[in-house]
Amino acid sequence: MLARNLSRTVSRQAVRRLFSSTPNRSSRALVKIVEVGPRDGLQNEKTPLSTELKVELIERLVNVGLMDIEAGSFVSPKWVPQMATTADVMTSPTLARLRERHGDKLSLPCLVPNDRGMHALASLMDKHPSTPPLTNEVALFVAATEGFSRANLNKSVAEALSVQPPIFEAARKRGLKARAYVSVVLGCPFEGYVDPKEAARVAKELLDMGAYEVSLGDTIGVGVPQQWEDLLSECQKLNLPMDKLAAHCHDTYGTAVANVLHCVSLGVPTIDSSVAALGGCPYSPGATGNVSTEDVVYALHESGIPSTFLPTPEPGSLLAWHDRGVDGRQRFEELCDVGEWVSEAIGRTNGSRVGKAVRGRKQREAQKRAKL
Q1: List 188, 249, 281, 336, catalytic entry
Q2: What does the alpha-carbon distance between residue 333 and residue 353 come to, in Å, rounded to a whole number?
Q3: Looking at residue 238, which CATH number applies to its domain?
């Protein structure tokens, strides 16, 4: 027990030393927010959702200022029926207008879980050539445990890794960036505890294959800040660049925002989130959705941390009704409105604590004005 505690202490010190020279808030790089709602958030919904709804969700998210949005997945409709219309979403006139308007600033990546998915995307891009192209980025995924890999991919972890290089190569030939996910890095519904050494090893293999970034996923939402610190320490031991890692947190046990803030404090530059906390894990009963984009934006902004959504944080301005930070507050409330809209559209309760709080405050303010 003493040896284990000593090892953890050394691990913590190593990570903290690594980031002891992290720039102060005013000079640090923006935390990149990757919106995963239209793909990861919607893929497990039971009620069929129309192409029009998915396209409108993406359009609303772009219009409020999110520029990195997972748009869909080229996966078998037998296993993920909600993603069967991804081709229609990607070729919609609305998304074409958004790409033309924003150019390279807008990224609409698609998940390609295997070579068939990559072939489907490539064929679609050939059939619909455009400038900018339908997408400039693909995403791949592998699990950190054998149990989850077998359930989700019907392959061992080694087998799942072995089929990735041709997908990376196909993406490279088309000029597409490749992002990779590692699922269940902090806990598995089949195996429970996950060795952070193993999760870090899988992440390293994906980076070595050519991923520009690896998103570490707490898929069932059991993680706490110390577990993230232990995992990042193992990544450091394998010389994984911190600027090539992202945190993908779920909020099953209510610790996602704490995890996000701790990961950012340790130098993780990218956070995955989902508007209205859409999402969940079909293999983990009771697992709730991704950390909500509204909650992440609020926590970062009020902590004085700049993000790609609100690059000039002014603590207090998202709650205040005075003039300071009006533009930021308006954009933030418009983001919350998107969460309310999509929750109502798909018939579920808004999973964002911040979104619900903003709605309640606006309702109270409207009632006060009505009484004047």
Answers
A1: 281
A2: 13
A3: 3.20.20.70
User: Taking residues 326-355, what's their average pLDDT?
Assistant: 93
Nearest one of 73, 64, 70, 74 to 36, comparing CA atoms: 70
281 carries an active-site annotation: yes
The answer to whether residue 331 is domain-embedded is no
- Phi (first) and psi of residue 352, to 5 degrees: -85, 120
| 326 belongs to a structural domain | no
Q: Enter the pTM of the model.
A: 0.91
| Overall domain count for the chain | 1
Residue bearing tokens 């993000």: 307
Name which of 332, 357, 355, 330 is nearest 344 in CA terms: 355
pLDDT band at 323 (very low <50, low <70, confident <90, very high): very low
Q: Identify the residue with better confidence: 31 or 313.
A: 31
Q: How far apart are CA 65 and CA 292, in angstroms?
A: 16
Token pair of 66, please? Answer: 């999110």
Q: Which domain holds residue 20?
A: 2-315
Please check whether residue 341 lies inside any domain of the structure. Answer: no
